[in-house]
Amino acid sequence: MTIEGPPTARQAPTERTFHGDTVVDEFAWLMTKEDPATIAHLEAENAWTEQATAHLTGLRETVFQEIKGRTQETDLSVPSRKGGFWYYTRTEEGKQYGISCRVPVRPGETDPPMDADKPGEEVLLDGNVLAEGKDFFALGTFDVSPDGNWLAYSTDFDGDERFTLRVKNLVTGEVLADEVTDVFYGSAWSADGSTLFYITVDEAWRPYRVWRHTVGTTENTLIFEEPDERFWVGVDLTRSEKFIVIDTQSKITSEVRVIPADMPDAEPVLIAERRQGVEYSIEHHGHRFLILHNRDAEDFAVAWTSVDNPGEWIEMIPHQPGTRLESVDAFSRHLVISLRRDGLTGLRVIADGSTASYDMEFPEPLYSVGLAGNPEYETSSVRITYTSLVTPDSVYDVDLITRSLTLRKQKPVLGGYQASDYEQFREWATAPDGTRVPISIVARKGVKRDGSAPALIYGYGSYEHSIDPYFSIARLSLLDRGVVFAIAHVRGGGEMGRQWYEQGKMLTKRNTFTDFVAAAEALVRSRWTSADRLVARGGSAGGLLMGAIANIAPEAFAGILAEVPFVDPLTSILDPSLPLTVTEWEEWGNPIDSAEVYAYMKAYSPYENVTKQSYPRILAVTSLNDTRVLYHEPAKWIARLRTVTPEGTYLLKTEMGAGHAGPSGRYDAWKEEAFNIAWILDVLQTP
Fold first, then answer.
1. Is position 465 annotated as part of the catalytic site?
2. Residue 427 and residue 406 in contact, taking contact as beta carbons nearer than 8 Å
3. pLDDT per position as a tens digit, 298-347
4. Rounded CA separation 544/321 (Å)
5. Which residues form the Peptidase S9A N-terminal domain (predicted)?
6. Residue 128: CB partners within 8 Å, gap ≥ 6?
7. Are strands 280-285 and 405-410 parallel, antiparallel or unpaired?
8. pLDDT tens for residues 655-674?
9. Catalytic-role residue among 145, 250, 540, 623
10. Is the pTM of this model over 0.85?
């Protein structure tokens, strides 16, 4: 049946008053998920989107087959050694999910076994079996005990990130009757594997309690509860397997407690009391706890304190402005520091007992590098991952003494991919306040810089989360059609250090949006593209960015793809009962208590600022069960866009059985990406 036009959401005005300001929200009724009218409206939007994009069916299938054809479907990760086993994940052609396995380490074996045939393979967990008959499946925790005898794992079949925790006996293969619902990510084992620590969430989906569970019993003991609604808790086991770590964090403040792993019944010991604005984390290394912190150190420094009597922080690596220290990983004889400088990631190695250090060097002008797992404490080598806009994900083992790198695997890209067919560039835009904003660009060689090329620009810009250069098989379907791809490293992210983040949050949030517009305009000025051949893309908090630039610079883009977009932020942040709201106040500000924050957020909120103007084509993609950005934000946004500017072209696509990350199976995810790419190509008028 042909649908005559897009759905028209009914209007039921609801008033909201704060700080003497009354706002009428005509689409607030869409917030009621249990209302059949809400579901009916979302389904009508889906039907309209399907009809409006029906002409792209063939292109979607072509792009899907391109992604599938470039992917080695039967594959395995590089095995990581832990104790007497090599652990790895493999995939099989035709199956949606990974299969987690291990094999015993053979006598004298030092290199990971990369051959497909692995005698003695033990399947620990098969996601395809767990997901059978389910529309959605995700793992939250996958944690093998130090002795290798137990596996703790948690599953989510709805997409709401409320997991059910189970324990499997890896000796007998039996899944125990032990079962805990509504747990969060993260777990930690005691040294002997008799006790498991895990986390549960409150009504607002905030992880706030740490529990101790005795394996094989129904015994669950609450050992820590965080009453402050700004804070989340986490739990982990140190790489040395000597301590259980309970970390408590708000957006800007931290507090850490430890429990000896061989004394799981002991009371948690506080490392340092929380101090507003001070963030710290710890890593165990012999007789000391290493402390990564920002106390009088904006870009962070490293200190240490005694394991036996935590107290004074003794300086170890002083603060160096412009070099953001992101993590410290301790091994028996070395430390590896993950850092960020000049918009690029890096790794620094320090030998135990030495003040000398060296930074690993890499040949490309743009790249991303980081540590990869490394469960072994007693080792003189570490595993790293390396990628760039043109280099597929690569896994290296690094000898920390000789500094030699051994390539263990590079992600296969089938179909004759050659990195030399593509070029990557770093350019800079100038923001309205004079700040230089980095842009990472990749294009197929031969693309003309005369303004005629189609282009896609991506941005995020929140939570100090950096969008570093990365390789994407799916992106090749754009590049090979002549599309230029760019990442705008806008403020609010962490690409240029802590100050970069501070200048794009709370009452400086507008810098995120104006930086992105400046980056788009820079692409046009440098003749990479033109405004009528440029699409913008962003998701989650990057979806807020998409909504904001649609209002402030609609003429700069031909289309906007907003994925799980946070486009009604003021309404959400004014409601403390919603998931995440209270914890988010240190990122966005508290508009309940502050009239200034209220006015500032209202001035940039995409939903609040839809006006009668010519908008670019917009596609909003969301998920019904998303607990991070609720489905009704994009649903209301699209409804208001249609009401205020009915001549525009706006589409809403809701995954009715998924969460924040969209479809869970890899083939479903590829189909979703093929849908997005086909829409982008259609907007760009690129076949």
1. no
2. no
3. 999 999 999 999 999 999 999 999 999 999 999 999 999 999 999 999 99
4. 30
5. 6-410
6. 95, 96, 97, 99
7. unpaired
8. 987 666 667 789 999 999 99
9. 540
10. yes
